[in-house]
Design a protein that fits this description.
about 375 residues; binds 4'-deoxy-4'-aminopyridoxal-5'-phosphate; about 40% helix; three-stranded antiparallel beta sheet; seven-stranded mixed beta sheet
Length: about 375
C-alpha cells in the first residue's frame, strides 16, 4: 500500500514513537506537583516549550500547549472574541476555512457576533485588499488559514498581517498554520500574526496534541475552567509524553523544511503535469499552492467510488478533508471557490510527505490511469 494522505495524518517518526513511550514509562509525574517526579515532568515541559519556541523563533512564554489544532483554533477565536468584545463584535474570515475555524465562528455568529466572509478566487485565495476593505470600526478579529487543507491554496497571510499591524494594530490576527508548518516558512515575530495554530500529527508527531502561538501582550479568555496550567489560558494536566513527542517533530520539521519543500515541489509537478493531460479532470490546485497537496475532480464520478477503486489499486488518497469526508455532501471548500456541485462532489485530494519518492508517484499515476479506464468500462456497460 502507498499512503498519500499525509494532510489527514502523517506517519509518526520512529524517534517520536520511542520518545513518547519512554516519557510515558519514566516520567509520569504531574508537572504541577512540587516533588521530584513533578519537577522532572515540569523540566520536560519547559524544555519542550523552549524547543518549540526556538524553532518558531518566538519566546517560550508565547507557546501554549493544547490537545490539537481544533482546540488551538477554538481557543484563539472564541478566546479573542470573548476577551475583546467590548471593542466590537465583528469578525472577518472566509467560507473555505477548516471546520474547527468555520464552526467556531458560526457559534459566535449565533451568540450575536457579526461575520464577514471574504470571497476567495478560483484557486481558493483571498485578496489582501478584500480583507482590508471588510474592516469596520467594530472589527476585533481576522481569522484565515495559512494553507488550505483540501486544495493547498495559500492565503497571503504575511502581507495581510503586516497591513493589519501597520493600520489596525488592535485587530487580532489568527492564522491556522496546521498545513503550512514545515512546508512554508513563516517568521511569526515579524509578520503581524498574533495567533498561530499547529498540530502534532500533521508533521509526523503524535495525535491529540498541538500548540497555539500567542503573541506577548495578547490576552485570551480561557475556554477551560480549572487549574492555572499554561499561564491560566488552558486548564488541565499537561500531556507531557505527547508534548515532548510533538516538540521533537516540530524541531525535525523546522530543520528539514527547505529540503522537504524542494523534494515535494518536484513530486507535485509530476502529478500536476499528469492531471493536466486528462481533459476530463479538473485541477483544483496548482504549483502556486503548498507543495504537498494536489487536488482534482472528475465531474460525474463520485469521489468515494474513486477513493475505493484507488484503494483496490493499492494507493490511499482522500476525498475532502478527513474531518468532513464522512459527510456525504459536496465540499464546502470547493463550493466556496465558486466550483459547481458536480466538481465539489467528485474531488480527490492527494497529499505527500517526506517519505515519498518519484517511484511512488509513478505508481500513483499508474493507479489513477487504471481507475479512469475502469470507470470508462463501467460506462460502456451502462450504455
Ligand atoms: N486546521 C487544519 C487546516 C487542519 O487540516 C486540521 C486537521 N484536519 C485541523 C485544523 C485540526 O487539527 P487537529 O486534528 O489537531 O485537531
Amino acid at each position: 500500500m502507498q499512503y498519500f494522505d499525509y494532510a489527514a495524518s502523517a506517519p509518526p517518526y520512529e524517534d517520536v514513537i520511542r520518545t513518547v513511550s519512554e516519557v510515558m514509562k519514566l516520567h509520569y509525574g504531574n508537572a504541577s506537583s512540587i516533588h521530584a517526579y513533578g519537577e522532572n515532568a515540569g523540566r520536560l515541559l519547559n524544555k519542550s516549550r523552549f524547543v518549540c519556541a526556538e524553532t518558531l523563533n518566538v519566546k517560550p512564554d508565547e507557546i501554549i500547549f493544547t490537545s490539537g489544532a481544533t482546540e488551538s483554533n477554538n481557543l484563539a477565536i472564541k478566546g479573542a472574541a470573548l476577551r475583546y468584545q467590548s471593542r466590537g463584535r465583528h469578525i472577518i474570515t472566509t467560507r473555505t476555512e477548516h471546520a474547527s475555524v468555520y464552526e467556531s465562528i458560526r457559534f459566535l455568529s449565533e451568540i450575536g457576533y457579526d461575520i464577514t466572509y471574504v470571497p476567495v478566487d478560483a484557486l481558493g485565495r483571498v485578496k489582501t485588499e478584500d480583507v482590508l476593505n471588510a474592516i469596520s470600526k467594530e472589527t476585533i478579529l481576522v481569522s484565515l488559514m495559512h494553507v488550505n487543507n483540501e486544495t493547498g491554496a495559500v492565503h497571503p497571510v504575511v502581507e495581510i498581517g503586516r497591513a493589519l499591524k501597520q493600520n489596525h494594530p488592535k485587530i487580532v490576527f489568527h492564522v491556522d498554520g496546521v498545513q503550512a508548518y514545515g512546508k512554508i516558512p513563516v517568521q511569526l515575530a515579524e509578520t503581524g500574526i498574533d495567533l498561530y495554530s499547529i498540530s502534532g500529527h500533521k508533521i509526523r508527531g503524535p495525535k491529540g496534541v498541538g500548540l497555539l502561538y500567542i503573541r506577548s501582550g495578547l490576552e485570551l479568555t480561557s475556554l477551560m475552567s480549572g487549574g492555572s496550567q499554561e499561564q491560566g489560558m488552558r486548564a488541565g494536566t499537561e500531556n507531557i509524553p505527547l508534548i515532548v513527542g510533538m516538540s521533537k517533530a516540530i524541531r525535525l520539521a523546522g530543520e528539514r523544511q527547505s529540503e522537504l519543500k524542494a523534494q515535494l515541489e518536484r513530486l507535485q509537478l509530476l502529478l500536476l503535469e499528469e492531471i493536466r493531460q486528462h481533459p476530463e479532470w479538473v485541477l483544483n490546485s496548482s504549483e502556486e499552492g503548498a507543495p504537498h497537496i494536489v487536488h482534482f475532480s472528475y465531474p460525474g464520478k463520485k469521489a468515494e467510488v474513486m477513493l475505493h477503486m484507488l484503494e483496490q489499486l493499492n494507493v490511499i488518497v482522500s476525498t475532502q478533508s478527513a474531518c468532513s469526508s464522512k459527510q456525504a455532501i459536496p465540499s464546502r471548500v470547493l463550493l466556496g471557490m465558486g466550483k459547481s456541485e458536480e466538481i465539489a462532489d467528485s474531488g480527490i485530494r492527494i497529499s505527500l510527505g517526506d517519505e515519498h519518492t518519484e517511484q511512488d508517484i509513478l505508481q500513483l499515476i499508474q493507479a489513477m490511469r487504471q481507475m479512469k479506464e475502469r470507470l470508462a468500462s463501467f460506462e460502456g456497460w451502462n450504455r
